[in-house]
Amino acid sequence: MAKASTIKRSLTDRYLKSIKGSRDGKPYDIRDTEIRGLRVRVMPSGERTFVLLARYKHGGAPTRRALGGYPALGLAEAREKARELLTGNRGPRRVTAVKARAFLVIPNTPAIYWNAGRQA
Prior knowledge:
The protein is an alpha+beta fold. Helix content is 34%, strand content 22%. The chain has 4 helices and 5 strands, in the order βαββββααα. It has helices at residues 13-18, 75-86, 92-103, 109-119, and strands at 7-9, 28-32, 38-42, 48-54, 63-69. A 5-stranded mixed beta sheet has the order 1-2-3-4-5. The chain starts with 6 loop residues before the first strand and ends with a helix.
């Protein structure tokens, strides 16, 4: 059986603080045991970033999405973001588009076109 390319571990704040960068100069991932697809990418410099790896279409290629850096984004917040993106099997682009559309309000659009056509 092939060896996994990532480490699988129960993530805690204490463990995340103790992670060091690799000496060979390559980034590596640590998988969370609580949320499937949630990983911590550790760069050679020691920078830690939460990443979500998931398939959003049946048979589609896995999509990797950065959720945020570790000190700025806490473990609980990263898990909540991952749950939100995985709920309902919606892709991250769709979730972002729905949130962006919620702020876009164009009042009286048909009236603007109607009045412009009548004046010409």
